[in-house]
Design goal:
Layout lengths: L10 H12 L2 H13 L3 H29 L3 H8 L8 H33 L9 H10 L2 H20 L1 H29 L4 H9 L8 H15 L5 H6 L8 H29 L10 H12 L3 H35 L3 H21 L14 H29 L1 H8 L13 H21 L1
Helix pairs in contact: 1-8, 1-12, 1-14, 2-10, 2-12, 3-4, 3-10, 3-12, 3-18, 4-5, 5-7, 5-14, 5-15, 5-16, 6-13, 7-8, 7-14, 7-15, 8-12, 8-14, 9-12, 13-14, 14-15, 15-16, 16-17, 16-18
Length: about 450
């Protein structure tokens, strides 16, 4: 290990941090609304199978590469190959993807922080029909309000990240991850004990395969890929802080299990309550802010439970944002030789400045487009549809043709327990995963 390089204080700390990175808006927002629009339990089952066969192997590859490199993604890939090697593009794709994700992700954190305040102050209570959608529109089209909340969230990320791994990220994750699951469980109990909630549970668990199409499989693939955060640099950099004898296969399994559990629990929060109050589950992307704020207004004790709900989603987004920022921060440190605290604020300032058009994209600059997309949607498209899939494709091809499966298995299994990279993973790693990633990329860019 490099001199003076930090490492995780314990296995628990790594699992909490990696799970915090994985559990974000993909779990609390995208997964429930996809379930709502794709027919319920059958989508959930398909998603679980994909996580097992594709998500865990890819996440294991990325963490293992990070442990081998003991450096940021770009410098780490240079160490494993050489400077100028095309395989270094894996590091660059991840860092640039994380940068553009954060340009709008921190803004969404601002939405969540604002909704916590709105819940506490009663600003979302007693609105007329259509008032919840109008309240969301009014907030997101107000650059001043949105900018203030975005700056606050940026400062929170900076305060935690500047303190380093043990004093910053590790302490935050050790506290916030257990708190997140406790809040989730409180909300699940409240939701499923509402009169009529069992109809929502039955709908959520119903395996209606008649509604499954090829599009459903592609959506489940994309959800598993983006929820775990593969090829955005987080897995690599968190893996780089591991000691040589850590149990990567077992830890990767636990992280993906925690990520998946959080997504499924989020569904148990939303759908039983939605059915109990006679609302529509298939609301799409409006489910989190419009439908749920409407729901909590009608729920007994709604201010309390609504505050807990938006606070837990904020915590999930915060921990993911810290994970996305870490590869950017360490790349600045490694390449430019800037000390960590200064690099933190340089990186976040750049993200905020580049991301400012995504704030304006909901209001004054709504009609300015790139490839037919406003600035917010373009940042999402560039990071999620192009950079992350390309990075994952490079990772899978590097494993298949340069690292080779047997060497990957040997490296990953150093320190492993009973759950290990097994020989039956070989066709997944060599054939299935590269093909699936190419399909995700082609679909995301051209369809």
């Amino acid at each position: 290990m490099e001199k003076n390089r930090e490492s995780w204080g314990s296995r628990f700390a790594f699992i909490m941090a990696a799970a915090g990175f994985a559990i974000g808006l993909g779990n609390m927002w995208r997964f429930p609304y996809l379930v709502g629009t794709q027919g319920g339990g059958a989508f959930v089952l398909i998603y679980l199978v994909i996580c097992l066969l594709i998500g865990i192997p890819l996440f294991t590859m990325e963490i293992t590469l990070g442990r081998l490199a003991q450096a940021s993604p770009v410098v780490g890939m240079r160490k494993l190959t050489k400077k100028g090697s095309p395989w270094v593009s894996f590091g660059w794709f991840g860092v640039i993807a994380a940068f553009f994700i954060l340009t709008y992700y921190i803004q969404i954190m601002g939405w969540l922080a604002a909704y916590v305040v709105k819940m506490i102050t009663g600003a979302l209570s007693g609105l007329p029909a259509g008032g919840y959608e109008q309240a969301f529109t009014d907030f997101t089209t107000n650059p001043m309000q949105l900018g203030i909340f975005t700056i606050i969230c940026t400062l929170i990320i900076g305060f935690i990240s500047a303190r380093g791994i043990k004093e910053g990220i590790e302490k935050a994750c050790n506290i916030l991850m257990p708190a997140l699951f406790i809040m989730l469980l409180i909300l699940v109990v409240r939701s499923i004990t509402l009169p009529g909630a069992m109809e929502g549970v039955k709908w959520y668990m119903n395996l209606d395969f008649s509604k499954i199409t090829g599009q459903t499989f592609l959506l489940a693939l994309g959800q598993a890929f983006f929820s775990i955060g593969i090829a955005s640099g987080g897995g690599f950099i968190y893996g780089s802080y591991l000691e040589r004898d850590t149990n990567i296969p077992g830890d990767a399994l636990l992280v993906v299990a925690a990520d998946t559990s959080a997504a499924i629990l989020a569904g148990f929060v939303m759908f039983p309550a939605i059915f109990a109050l006679g609302l529509e589950p298939g609301q799409g992307s409006k489910l989190l802010f419009v439908t749920m704020s409407n729901l909590f207004d009608k729920l007994p004790g709604g201010v309390f439970f609504g505050t807990i709900f938006f606070l837990l989603v904020f915590f999930a987004a915060l921990l993911s944002a810290i994970g996305y920022f870490e590869p950017i921060l360490t790349t600045i440190v490694d390449i430019f030789g800037i000390e960590r605290k200064k690099a933190t604020w340089v990186g976040l300032a750049a993200i905020f400045v580049v991301g400012f058009p995504t704030i304006m994209a909901h209001g004054p600059w709504a009609n300015i487009t790139i490839l037919g997309k406003n600035f917010f949607d373009f940042a999402d498209f560039l990071s999620g549809n192009i950079l992350m899939p390309l990075g994952a494709i490079v990772l899978s091809l590097y494993t298949a043709f340069i690292w080779k499966f047997n060497r990957f298995k040997e490296d990953a299994n150093v320190g492993a327990g009973s759950y290990r990279v097994m020989a039956w993973w070989k066709p997944l790693v060599m054939f299935l995963i590269p093909i699936v990633l190419i399909i995700i990329f082609v679909r995301g860019v051209f369809f």
